[in-house]
Design a protein that fits this description.
The structure is a single chain. The protein has about 100 residues and is mainly alpha-helical. It has a domain of about 70 residues. The chain is built from 4 helices and no strands.
Length: about 100
């Protein structure tokens, strides 16, 4: 059975508020870190500071360091991030990241 697609959409964004605020990047190598800033509702400067504490060089390129483990450590090491991984996840919790860093 096929369903005909509508020819027009009658929706609006009135009243919509995004859960995330825009966070721009300052250079071409900071896209992953800018995503963390958006998710954590913090500044890109705060994310860079935490990443540098964990061994990120002050000048890029540093895409060779930005794997999932490093990004998880940065994210969970930021203030106001207090979450636990989903059941079965291997992503470290906030306290484990701090101990490992």
């Amino acid at each position: 059975m096929t369903t005909a697609l509508p020819t027009s959409v009658n929706s609006t964004n009135a009243g919509f508020a995004s859960a995330f605020k825009h966070g721009g990047t300052t250079e071409r190598h900071a896209d992953s870190l800018a995503c963390i800033a958006i998710i954590a509702s913090t500044t890109l400067a705060d994310v860079f500071e935490k990443a540098e504490q964990l061994g990120l060089p002050k000048a890029g390129p540093y895409n060779h360091m930005l794997d999932s483990d490093f990004l998880a450590k940065v994210l969970t090491g930021l203030p106001n991030i207090n979450w636990l991984p989903l059941s079965g996840s291997t992503v470290p919790t906030h306290h484990n990241c701090q101990a490992a860093a």
